[in-house]
Amino acid sequence: MRQALVLNASYEPLSTVPLRRAVVLVIQHKAVVEHAHPGLRVRAAAVDLPVPQVIRLRRFVRVPFRQRAPWSRRGVLVRDGHRCAYCGRRATTVDHVLPRSQGGGDSWLNTVAACAEDNNRKANRTPSQAGMRLLVKPFEPTPADALLLALGTAEARLELPDWLRPSATAAAS
């Protein structure tokens, strides 16, 4: 199911919502479409509007300040584009760079996406102990970047306007 990014009235990313919810917010005049999927439209008896990819709330919503994006296995896979940090193939698991048995924890900087084969080969060792090299360095996305990465594939993010794309630090890693 497609997701739409919700921006606050101040253009600050708030969350992602299912496409249906985004359309309802626009129809109820609670939000406006900032960016739409090219060539796609929602049509009904009294409605004809572009399929929203990014919507902006008309009224400012006060939210508690989030300094850090919450860590999750799904977040690590999305951050790394479902690509193995050791070989570049499709990743289905999350690997701890410093294994938990050696004091490593669940954090953005200690976990990378990995294919099952490389995860098993590395086992309970650090990459240097296993003779493996990381192709990408793990990084901690900002909460805003985490929301944009959650939008899906790289192709979907390329359709976004330049001002909405993840920051250079997230894209370069």
Describe this structure in words.
By secondary structure, the chain is of the alpha+beta class. It is 25% helix and 24% strand. It contains seven helices and six strands; from the N terminus they run E-E-H-E-E-H-E-E-H-H-H-H-H. It has a four-stranded mixed sheet, sandwiched between helices. A two-stranded antiparallel ribbon has the order 5-6. The radius of gyration is 19 Å and the shape is elongated.
Structure summary:
This protein is 25% helix and 24% strand.
Topology at a glance:
Elements: E1 3-7, E2 13-18, H1 19-27, E3 31-43, E4 48-57, H2 73-79, E5 93-96, E6 111-114, H3 116-122, H4 127-130, H5 143-149, H6 154-158, H7 168-172
Parallel strand pairs: 1-4
Antiparallel strand pairs: 1-2, 3-4, 5-6
Percent of sequence in beta strands: 15-25%
- Helix proportion of residues, in percent? 25-40%
Overall body shape: elongated
Q: Give the low-pLDDT segments.
A: 168-173
Structural class: alpha+beta
Distance between the termini: 27 Å
Which descriptors would you attach to this protein?
alpha+beta; 173 residues; 7 helices; four-stranded mixed β-sheet; two-stranded antiparallel ribbon
